[in-house]
Structures are given as structure tokens and as C-alpha cells.
Specification:
EC 2.4.2.21 (chains A, B), homodimer, elongated
Chain lengths: ~325, ~325
Amino acid sequence: SHATAFQGAQDRNSQLTKPPGALGRLEDLAIWYAGWRGNPKPQINAPQVVIFAGNHGVCAQGVSAFPPEVTEQMVANFEHGGAAINQLSKAFGATMNVHALSLDTPTADFTQAPAMTEAEVVSALQIGWAAVDPASDLLVTGEMGIGNTTSAAAVAAAVLGGDAADWTGRGTGVDDAGLARKAEVVAKGVALHASSDPLEALRCLGGRELAAMAGAIAAARHCRIPVILDGFICCAAAATLAKAVDGALDHAVAGHQSAEAAHARLLTALGKEPLLSLGLRLGEGSGAALAIGILKGAVACHSGMLTFAEAGVSAG
Amino acid sequence: SHATAFQGAQDRNSQLTKPPGALGRLEDLAIWYAGWRGNPKPQINAPQVVIFAGNHGVCAQGVSAFPPEVTEQMVANFEHGGAAINQLSKAFGATMNVHALSLDTPTADFTQAPAMTEAEVVSALQIGWAAVDPASDLLVTGEMGIGNTTSAAAVAAAVLGGDAADWTGRGTGVDDAGLARKAEVVAKGVALHASSDPLEALRCLGGRELAAMAGAIAAARHCRIPVILDGFICCAAAATLAKAVDGALDHAVAGHQSAEAAHARLLTALGKEPLLSLGLRLGEGSGAALAIGILKGAVACHSGMLTFAEAGVSAG
């Protein structure tokens, strides 16, 4: 059972040739991973990076430094291997899949109407769920969608409370005037679609790629595949699950703390300590993909090291 | 030239398909690496991890939670592939070499006499210098030596000033009484061997593995091989170079901040911001080896990504 694997991993960890606790968070990570995989001596052989792309009607409000056509251009870049996430997936031995979600049909501008219909949000959740390979042993969900830090800020504000301005950052790099406009747009959307239901917040304020990430993270839970969360947008999508079901993100760690202003606040709300903090703010799953190396290193130490008895080392 | 490569890497970075600065520190790392390698589009194909082991006469003062024979036992563990650093080297594609330095002849107890003669410290420096493969493209230096956090604390206090207690931590895990005794031992050594010469501090208070690490880091500089510094002991050895020659560590980044109490202070003194902070305190080069993945990811993005023009993406 998984509890047995968790206990077995703890026992094993205490016998490895190192002072107790000397591998710090790597020890906790390996034991956590072993528990979810139901194997006290696991390996990471098949990480999967899944990228979802969507377009946002709220771009009409002038919230991004880039034009909406960049979403589709970047999808082509992913498919041709030219983006950061391609290099990181390759560097850490992950397969990478890209799902472009109805790019020609942006969501509705959430300052005017719900971003998605029920059918649209359910479809995106299902695409996300189906995108997870049950044979993979680690999942990173990434996204691309011009305008989606605005959408994510609105989802976070609706689900977690607080002022719109506290959840609004510069995204790809808007100036001060753009930032102020963005916060107003977020506040307007949250006021228009007030609801205590996190999935309703996802529908009315989110986007297809956010819903698909939530679906994928839920599918990974079902398959007991551990997840590395990426930055602000991924965590906003994940927050809807955490709010809907207690412990829904217990199978997930935070890959990094992004430079997007509100990500630290979001990680705190989720109770997640980031593995990395290197000032990334790219999305695409890039920060989480970088953290695959950390988790691989943790599991490699845990499962590959000899015990004091095996190595003939005095245990102090 | 290297200046040309640095400039070329900066130019390239500004054209890659991402918002400016969105890869955070990864961008700085890649440009720094490109400059040292003299290649605006470099690759990391041959990282080398070199471990030096030494024994310490100061163990007679009861400064460690482990007995001195563990140094030799752990060298055997390295040679048989059972230690953490073996797993991490393998996980990040690094070769690993182990040099046991006169383990049967510990240094002198520095509370009584200089730890090494001039011939001994020069020999250790030379072994370190010769251990670096000039064909490698990244260096991690690690160490094993029961008692060497005491030695490193004394070197740091002598070279950088401040109270012995500020540089003294729990190492492999001494209790409060052990910690107090350790600080007294450090203070006694520093008082006995007062000198403003960093290499004299290395000789009188250091150990063979510390001197060898200093030699290896200097050799890497000569070969323009970038270095990832490990924890407290590695950084204490490196500090003697920084104190001897301004900018002697410009080819080095700090791989991580260790849980050893004084490492944060030491990194500040060296002006190095750590890449990782995951509570490791194992030595062996483990924290630096884990950071190989970060540097590989940075260089992979820099050299593998397409430019806006190549990918046909609008630059905003």
C-alpha cells in the first residue's frame, strides 16, 4: 500500500550513508514521491510536460504587452522545438505535448460576460484530464496564453479573496499605466462574477488553458502521478482544485517562486514552499521543468545510495 | 575573444523567444558561462565532479559527531558508487573522481601546531590543480573529511575576521556542548596562527582537502572552466583564493546555501548569491552537483531557443 511505501521510504532514508537530515529537503521530497508512487525505492523515468494554450477575450482591455496572435505563434514555436520549455524538457528527459485549445475562439471578455460557457469549461477540463499519460511518473503542466496573468489574477482574487491589485502583476511586462488598468480589469471581473464556487470562478474568469491545467492536475492525482506546479497561472488554476477539495494538491510540490508579483502570495495561500526561486516569469511550465532536476536528484539519492550496513560505514 | 563571446551571448539573449528578462537568473548564468567559455552559444557536455578527502588532527579535540575512520570508509563508498554524490553526478551527467589525500597521516591538531608543513600544503594544492581535466567544461569540487567543518570555520575566521563562534556550526550534527567546544577550538587555532596571509591560514588551519579544492578552483580559472561552489568547506577554501587575488572567483557561482550555520555569512563575504537553498549540509559537492542541472538548463535555453525572427513570433 501507499502508506507502507511511505513508511518504507522513511526507514530506508534513515539508514543511508549520510548524517541524519543532511540532504535537507531532498529527503522529504524523495519520501513524498515514494509514498505517492507506492514504492519505497522509486525511480523517475518518464516525466511528462504538458502545455495548454488558450486565447483571452479580456485582451480587448489592453492588459498585455504582447498582441494575442503571439499565443498561436508560440504554439508553433513549441511544435518546432524553439521555446525555452522545449530545451528544459529535453535537458531533464521529459516528453512534451502541446494542446492548442480553440485559439480562433478566444474566451469572452470577462469584464462583459462569463469567460466560458459550462460546455466550454467542461471540455477544457476533459482535454486536460485526457492529456495526462497514465504511464508517466511525474507531471508538469505549463501554459501559453496572451492575457492569462489577468485571468489568473481574477481567478485567484475570486477564490482566495483580497484586493484585485494584490493579485495583479506585470505579466510579460506591462508598464505602470498598464498595471493599473489590469488591476481595474481584474476588480471589474471579480465584482461581476462574484461566486463562492471555485469552479464557477474558473469558468467565469479563467481560460481554457487554466481549466485544462486543473483537469490535468486532477487526473494526475487519480493516477497517483506527482505534480510539479509552475508559476502564477498554473498555481491559480490549481487553487481552484485546492478550494474545491481539501488536500487536492497533496500530490503536488511548487517547482519555483516566479517573479510575477503575486506568486509568492499564491504559494503561501496554497501552503507550498517553492523548490527554486530564480526570478523566472516565463510560464510554459519552465520553472517547474527546471525543478524536475531537483526531484530527480532527490529520488536518485534516495534509491541509489547504499545504507551504512551495505557500505560498511560507521553510523556515528 | 571572451569579451566578444560575452557580448555575443548578450545580443543573442535579447533576441530569444521570451519576454525580456523572463528567464531571470538563467539568462545571467548563460551569458556568464558563454563569456568564460569564449563561445556565444555554448554547450555543457563534460561536467567534472572532483572529491578530495583528508583527515584532521583536530578531531582529537572531540569536534565531530562521527569518528575519523569514517573519512576512509566514505572514500570506499564513493569508489563503490554508494554515496549521494555518486547518484547526483550520474543524474547530471558528470564524471566523478575521488582523491584520498594521505588519510593515514592526518594534519596536525591546529590547536597545537600548524596543520600542515609548507611541503604538505603545496603538495595538496598541486594535487588539486592536477585533478582538473582541462577538457571538462564545468567543475564541482567536493570534499570528505571528518573534522573539516572545524578546519573550515578556522580558515574563514582567520581570512575574513569576526568571532570564532560566528563561523562555527554543527557540521555532521554535534550537540550544544560539542558546538561550544568546537567554537573554543576554532578560537584557539585562530589565535595561535594569527596571520594576514590567506595561504598561511590555509596551511596552518586548513586541511589537505581544502587546499586541494583551492588548487582545483585555481586550475579551472586557468583553463576558463566555470566552477560551481559547494557548501561551507568548499567556500572556505575558495575564500583563501578570493582574499589572495581580487576577482579570483569570478569564474565561480555558488551552487547552494547550505544549512551549516555560517555558510550564509560566507556567501555574503564572497558576494555570491546561491542558486539553491534546500537545507543540504552533506558536503561531498552534493549541493553544487544538484546545481549542475540549473546551469545546464540555463545554457540549454540560451543555446537551443529560436530567436523571434527565426520562429516568426511577434516581439511585442
